[in-house]
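We now fix the convention by which a protein and its fold are recorded. These numbers are not coordinates but entries in a learned vocabulary of local backbone shapes. A record is reproduced here so that you can trace the correspondence yourselves:
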Amino acid sequence: MTHTQGKETVVTKETQATGPKGWIGYRPEIKVMDCTIRDGGLMNNHRFDHEFVKAVYQADIEAGVDYMEIGYKASKKLVSRNEFGAWKFCDEDDMRRIVGDKKSSVKISVMADAERTDYHTDILPKDKTVVDMVRVATYIHQIPAALDMIKDAHDKGHETTINLMAVSTVPDLELDNALEALCNSDVGTLYIVDSFGTLYGEQVQALMHKFLKFARPAKKTIGIHTHNNMQLAFANTIEAIILGANMLDASIAGLGRGAGNCPMELLLSFLHNPKFNLRPVLRCIQHHVEPMREKLRWGFGIPYMVTGHLNQHPRTAMKFMEETDGRDILKFYDAAIEEE
């Protein structure tokens, strides 16, 4: 792909055109991950009913989406079933009620938090589960535990990713050390994760160049997962695509924690691969996702913008939106500043 600086078109080694005519072509290596159920579940304690999850799955099949992240593999020793719905745990019976026993074109992914997953027992070998990919979510200080989880999942036959969370808070030297260790592991994809929705395009560029420095020699894929606190989730995803990211996260109507994610409908509209079909996503939005907006209240809002601007976790904004009408934004802003 190409991008421009003023009137001059710049083509670098890692951003070569996706086809013979640049933007008219496409990069076939690009894969799309639907995070609607997993990330959206953070807005309702993962209590989506099976009908909704099945509707998202069917939309993904018809739309040509490559992966669907169906939820978490949380430890039942640490998390109570009385407090959370089925998609916090992704038991095999629940997943099979959605996907059946016959494989479809959509691969199933689960997320396993470092130090919060009984992965030795709860993540089954590939031939005994509908799961195709295990995504290990880790903070920088949990890298040793995450590496063990990656080895376990890889040895069980799964595709794997490392989602390095809150990358906007990680010092350069620590990030370099982490990337070196990860690139010496069996992990397939390294994710840049804008957990707080705080990154600007220039920061995404810098992170992509850093990740590429380590990932390219090790033949690892780079992925991007963005949040929309600053209304930049889609733009930052495009920036990462231009620089070589081939695993792209999005969610239907942006449904995700707080400000939400890169909207699937925008991403599929941008990508040129003819295998993608927008209409099934729009149908799912109209009939299944939008009717939940008033209750779940995800999407851009000033409190989420404030936490993104301040590089803070959005939990305080989420609490503010849940407990108030969300109008006293000055009070929220002043409180957030005091936390700095």
Summary: The first helix runs from residue 36 to 40.
